[in-house]
Amino acid sequence: MVLFKTLRGGATRVPMRTASGAGMASAEEPQRLRIKGCGVREVETVSVPRPEGAVEDGLLPLNVFRAVYVSNSEKFVVVDPRPGN
């Protein structure tokens, strides 16, 4: 999981690669991901500076979901969370 926030000094820096390029991120404690009260699982977490204009809190890894449906025409997403492990 990638959190958008102010980076803290002294944090462990780790390399991060995305479709838009590579950079450095700050390692965070793993987070227990919960969606609508459903515990999905503990996920590795890093933080990066908030991108300009971003209103989101971060990015979720798609591999924590059993299924993901995206409707481009109707502009919505449906996710089926996996049971917590």
What does the model show?
With 85 residues, the chain is mostly beta strands. 0% of the residues lie in helices and 59% in strands. It contains no helices and 7 strands. It has strands spanning 2-4, 13-18, 21-35, 38-48, 58-59, 65-71, 76-81. A hairpin with a 4-residue loop joins strand 6 (65-71) and strand 7 (76-81).
Features:
two-stranded antiparallel sheet, mainly beta, five-stranded mixed β-sheet, 7 strands
Structure at a glance:
0% of the residues lie in helices and 59% in strands.
Outline the biggest β-sheet: 5 strands, mixed
Number of helices: 0
How many DSSP-defined strands? 7
Structural shape: globular
Strand content: over 45%
Helix content class: under 10%
Q: Give the terminus-to-terminus CA distance.
A: 17 Å
Poorly predicted sequence stretches spanning 5 or more consecutive residues: none
